[in-house]
Amino acid sequence: MSCQAWPEPVVRVQALAESGLSSIPSRYVKPRSQRPTNTNTNTTDVNMNIPVIDLQSLSSGEDIALREETLQRVAEACREWGFFQVVNHGVSHELMRNARELWREFFDQPYELKEEYANSPNTYEGYGSRLGVSKGAILDWSDYFFLHYMPPSLRNQDKWPTLPLSLRKVISEYGEEVVKLGGRMLELMSRNLGLKEDYLMNAFGGENEIGGCLRVNFYPKCPQPDLTLGLSAHSDPGGMTILLPDDFVSGLQVRKGNHWITVNPLPNAFIINVGDQIQVMSNAIYKSVEHRVIVNSNKDRVSLAFFYNPKSDLLIEPAKELVTKERPALYQPMTYDEYRLYIRVNGPCGKAQVESLTSPIR
């Protein structure tokens, strides 16, 4: 099943925010149980933050003990949190700043220029304002731009914005560096699972066939941030996400038990999280974790999420080395193409999708 058109006219959330409204349309008001202010089970503990991991020791190779400690910290973060920040990751800080600022400039352009890139639910590529195609669905308070970067055969620069003038060049440079970082993280995860260093990369299809997509999120300021979300709670359907957060405004929240933890991004850090496909490949040793985005009454936010995914037509299943009599395969094989159709049709739905894959033989 694929859908060629949105079920109703698309409204740009940025335009709503700039219209000066004092209350948000009912289409964006979340049920009470999903609102950021719900305190039954979803309280936020501001004294916690996701792990921060310095990757410097992995590139220097001088201190073996420190290198092993770093590997263990990555393993623990993947098992216990599904999220962590990395510093000294090898990506130019100037490139990170340029990418974020140029995308902010894109969203500041007149609407008629942005509408030239309006997307459809068939591929989602381009300028969009909703996920899922259910008519009458409650929507999130955000706009976005989505593009394919890997494999190179799907990279279509004609669908990338021409303005600001240097944006296409920076997309290419930024994509190249983030893909390299993703490859290094897959190697670390493979080693920590007791697999060959290239296991996850090969299971993703190999360096030239992995899937890589960039979703640039724009979260406009909101007159009633307590009633809505910039992005509803979900786990990421792909392999791994490498997020460049806004450098001034926090908004990402990660579920830890019954708490929503607001992530405080460090300067020049990336936030990395495990996606559903690595949860499946690791036979649930590593877990994808629900997260959501809250919005701000005074400030807009921009973030860049790079989705590092398996080749779309490969069967994804638990690694044979991680399946034992005591721990049988927890998931049925499925291609990533089949898997991601769920979120494209239904929108973000917590962890309902990956949990629905659980094998009946436990």
UniProtKB/TrEMBL annotation:
Known cofactor(s): Fe(2+); L-ascorbate
Source organism, top-level taxon: Eukaryota
PROSITE patterns per UniProt: FE2OG_OXY
InterPro entries noted in UniProt: DIOX_N, IPNS-like_FE2OG_OXY, IPNS-like_sf, Oxoglu/Fe-dep_dioxygenase_dom, Plant_2OG-oxidoreductases
UniProt cross-references to Pfam families, sorted A to Z: 2OG-FeII_Oxy, DIOX_N
Keywords: Dioxygenase, Iron, Jasmonic acid signaling pathway, Metal-binding, Oxidoreductase, Plant defense, Vitamin C
Catalyzed chemical reaction(s): jasmonate + 2-oxoglutarate + O2 = (1R,2R)-12-hydroxyjasmonate + succinate + CO2
Annotated Fe2OG dioxygenase domain residues: 209-310
Entry's Gene Ontology molecular function annotations: dioxygenase activity; jasmonic acid hydrolase; L-ascorbic acid binding; metal ion binding
GO biological process entries: defense response; negative regulation of defense response to insect; regulation of defense response to fungus; regulation of jasmonic acid mediated signaling pathway
Family, as annotated: Belongs to the iron/ascorbate-dependent oxidoreductase family.
Protein name: Fe2OG dioxygenase domain-containing protein
Species for this entry: Arachis hypogaea (Peanut)
